Amino acid sequence: MDWNREQGWQQARICSYQPFEMDPAATVLHYGQAIFEGLKAYRGDNGQIYLFRPLDNLERMNRGAVRMSMPRFPVDLILQGLKALVYLDRDWIPEANGASLYLRPTMIGVDPFLGLKPADNYIFYLIMSPVGSYYAGGFSPTKIFVCRDYVRAVKGGVGEVKTAGNYAASLLAYEMANKAGYTQVLWLDACERRYVEEVGTSNIFFMLDDTLVTPPLGGSILGGITRDSVIKLARSWDIKVEERPVTIDEVLAASQDGTLKESFATGTAAVISPVGELFCDDTGYPINRGEAGPLAERLFEELQAIQYGRSEDPFKWTMRVG
Ligand code: PMP
């Protein structure tokens, strides 16, 4: 679908996956006007196809469009197109538990213009790809590297937007963490490098004594849809949940004195990813003896059961396709 300043959104169309032409001066290539989303379609045991909270993804993307000086899009129309495409390609959705069809709606500015200003022309497109189970080898914990050298986002910047540049800014730290044997980076706040923000492409939770704690959304963290689902599910199970600033020192001290019971990251890709170790300032801090914790397992099982239509859906998160 295309947008231009005179005509607005137009030419919604379905075509097969193929490269498209873009001017070398396109705004997205120089000034980074690119926003995207990640969501999944699941095939339930009964063959029914489900999307998980698609409106929340599209509304988050539209908020991002405003921050990036890009045009908002009609959510209903995009959702209709998205469902039509998923239905068309339903045979590609794997049956295996944990597998799904990953959907990547994307919007970019394409003006062939070198001056700095918001583009006058945009395209919105959707990429779809079948993905296997994240936990083919079992529900295993990750080891996370705490990054003190670089920051991912600053307050007032675009950290709460799913925009390309945030990921470019994080690649160097990933490479360093990967070389040191860690799978993810834990980001700290830009000002003091003390407050925990988020992990790679996930939000982070700590079970401190009997309270589930996660950093508040203060403008530099992406408001994860899985994060929101976990908060709502945990509260419905009468687990105390606090969205509050949490320092890395508090977390590391709690890992040493045993009050940190478990930790996990949340995101569309893995749903729940247990954390077995934090590595900070040359020291490793094991969590729950390096094992997945019971709450992480319970949340993972319940969220997957809802996503595959096996369990009741009290929050009305799933949307049927077809
Ligand atoms: N933070 C970042 C930076 C991410 O890219 C993602 C993945 N979209 C998340 C958090 C988790 O968000 P969600 O639960 O909506 O996938």
From TrEMBL:
Recorded metabolic or biological pathway in which this protein acts: Amino-acid biosynthesis; L-leucine biosynthesis; L-leucine from 3-methyl-2-oxobutanoate: step 4/4; Amino-acid biosynthesis; L-isoleucine biosynthesis; L-isoleucine from 2-oxobutanoate: step 4/4; Amino-acid biosynthesis; L-valine biosynthesis; L-valine from pyruvate: step 4/4
EC number: 2.6.1.42
Required co-factors: pyridoxal 5'-phosphate
Top-level taxon in the UniProt lineage: Bacteria
Catalysed reactions listed for this entry: L-isoleucine + 2-oxoglutarate = (S)-3-methyl-2-oxopentanoate + L-glutamate; L-leucine + 2-oxoglutarate = 4-methyl-2-oxopentanoate + L-glutamate; L-valine + 2-oxoglutarate = 3-methyl-2-oxobutanoate + L-glutamate
Xref: Pfam families: Aminotran_4 (PF01063)
Family matches, as NCBIfam families: ilvE_II (TIGR01123), PRK13357.1 (NF009897)
Protein name: Branched-chain-amino-acid aminotransferase
